[in-house]
UniProtKB/TrEMBL annotation:
InterPro entries given in the database record: Glutathione-S-Trfase_C_sf (IPR036282), Glutathione_S-Trfase_N (IPR004045), Thioredoxin-like_sf (IPR036249)
Ranges where the GST N-terminal domain occurs: 3-84
Full protein name: Glutathione S-transferase
Pfam families given in the database record: GST_N_2
SUPFAM superfamilies associated with the record: GST C-terminal domain-like, Thioredoxin-like
Organism for this UniProt entry: Fuscibacter oryzae
Length: 289
């Protein structure tokens, strides 16, 4: 049996990104249930997840409802002790929990002024002093974590729940071109290149219409993460493969890449692959095989 996870729009819901990474980045099976933000969809869906009122909300295989990402992280770590959500070293684990707790409760100015939008990146956003103070605090605790744990790429050794908690912050820094030191920008770039982050963003680019709430008037620039391979959706169902690389179901929708026509069982499977082909190992195995 797998877990159920209620999420909001992937392109915008920073809390949902954090919750989903706690599964995908650690190899824990999960079935997602998407509810569009700023509509009745989310409150209606959560009626089946009492007493939850926000996304993400998890339901365990034995039926326990667990809202809030900090609780989801701890519960998954208890149920899957070998998954590596928290560092095995006691000191690194303590540092990681400090970071996750502060992220869960803090950085309100940064969140409010720079709501996560994975669909665009701006050349700048003229951050006010309160946001700059939040960025300075990030510099402090990220440096502290690395100094305490001797880590280089991630904050506390291998990728952990602490890094998953800061993935939406990395997305904000990338999306709004926020001023951080080279050391912290390298950390941001590690997030943008992380396989799970790339999969989530690819889905977020195609899983619904733009949300007006997140529109900003700033000049745009290309997304600063890895440049996707060129691919495009095409008409018809004629493809070199007969089964979707994800579901195994018959092909109904097709993309073109490197002069080849490869097919999928629905438009979403195709479009998320068009958005970033290299984010999807099963598709790349099909392409290269």
């Amino acid at each position: 049996m797998t877990y159920d996870l209620v999420i909001g729009d992937r392109g915008y819901s920073s809390w949902s990104l954090r919750g989903w990474l706690l599964f995908d980045a650690f190899g824990i099976p999960v079935k997602t249930h998407l509810a569009r933000l700023y509509s009745d969809a989310l409150p209606n869906m959560l009626k089946a997840y009492h007493p939850a009122k926000t996304a993400p909300t998890m339901r365990t295989p034995d039926g326990v409802v667990v809202p809030e990402t900090i609780a989801i992280a701890e519960e998954l770590a208890s149920r899957h002790p070998d998954a590596g959500l928290w560092p095995s070293d006691p000191k690194a684990r303590a540092v990681a929990r400090v970071l996750a707790a502060e992220m869960h409760a803090g950085f309100v100015a940064l969140r409010d002024y720079c709501p996560m939008n994975l669909r665009v990146s701006y050349t700048g956003c003229e951050p006010p002093d309160e946001v700059l103070a939040d960025l300075a605090r990030l510099e402090t605790i990220w440096d502290w974590a690395r100094d305490q744990t001797g880590s280089t790429v991630w904050l506390c050794g291998d990728y952990s729940a602490a890094d998953a908690f800061f993935a939406p912050v990395a997305a904000r820094i990338a999306g709004y071109n926020l001023p951080v030191s080279p050391r912290q920008m390298a950390y941001v770039q590690a997030h943008l290149a992380h396989p799970s982050f790339r999969r989530w963003r690819a889905m977020g680019l195609v899983d619904g219409a733009d949300q007006d709430f997140y529109r900003r008037p700033y000049p745009r620039r290309p997304w600063p993460g890895p440049v996707p391979m060129a691919a495009r959706a095409v008409e018809g169902a004629e493809a070199q493969n007969t089964a979707c690389p994800y579901s195994g179901k018959p092909v109904t929708h097709v993309l073109e890449i490197e002069g080849r026509r490869l097919g999928f069982c629905n438009a979403f499977c195709r479009d998320k692959t068009v958005a970033d082909p290299e984010a999807w190992p099963k598709f790349m195995a099909l392409l290269r095989g």
